[in-house]
Amino acid sequence: MKLLEDRILQDGTVLPGNVLKVDSFLNHQIDYKLIKALGEEFYNTFKDTGVTKILTVEASGIAIACAAAEHFEVPVVFAKKGHHKNVGNDIFTADVFSFTKGITYTVAVSKKYLNAQDKVLVIDDFLADGQACMGLKSICEQAGAEVVGFGIAIEKGFQNGGKLLRETGIPVQSLAIIASMTDDSICFASND
Ligand code: 5GP
User: Fold this and answer.
1) Fewer C-beta neighbours within 10 Å, C or N terminus of the chain?
2) Alpha carbon separation from 64 to 33, 44, 152 (Å, rounded)
């Protein structure tokens, strides 16, 4: 998606450890006009899959998930990180290794908000090694729900997550795929 690629080139910075910082429009300050366009793009791709819920993980996936939900007219459920007391005891959980923080944390979703009738679109801001998305997929499986797609804003194509997700056979749409990045250049792969 050219709009997103241009914005990454304009405002993204590459941090040590293969981390792309996009704080000015996605991860801290949010450019909602851009985020709305991402949501619309996901809708155009997945509109015929019968989506009943959009599932993401707090915090940065939420804005994109809401922008998509406006079109699908379905609820957004976000997995909470380690807040089990707030979520209650009746929960689905998955352990996720965080690429950026280097720690494993547990994500939880209340059993009230996912069930076996649900068709779920999983949305996240980044795809690196695929741990967050696979954790969300595991939560859907525990609920008996079907994952109908993965919608990713920025995939780092040089990491393993894309392969892992595509091997599941579930459709994956990444709006920008970074083929390589260094301190002074970011190259995109074709995402046709
Ligand atoms: P994965 O679970 O695919 O290894 O990593 C995806 C998660 O880690 C995303 O939810 C995102 O929050 C974070 N993440 C991974 N790589 C990056 C990155 O390069 N930049 C930013 N800002 N977040 C990242």
Assistant:
1) C
2) 11, 14, 9
What pTM was estimated for this model as a whole? Answer: 0.97
- Every domain of the chain and the residues it spans: 2-9+20-183
Architecture of domain 2-9+20-183: 3-Layer(aba) Sandwich (3.40)
Which tokens hold the place of 148? 């109908």
Q: Is the CB of 56 under 6 A from ligand 1?
A: no
Q: Give residue 122 CA to ligand 1 midpoint distance, Å.
A: 14
Closest ligand 1 atom, CA of 57? 10
Reported as a single tens digit per residue, the pLDDT across 15-73 is: 999 999 999 999 999 999 999 999 999 999 999 999 999 999 999 999 999 999 999 99
138 ligand 1 Cβ < 6 A: no
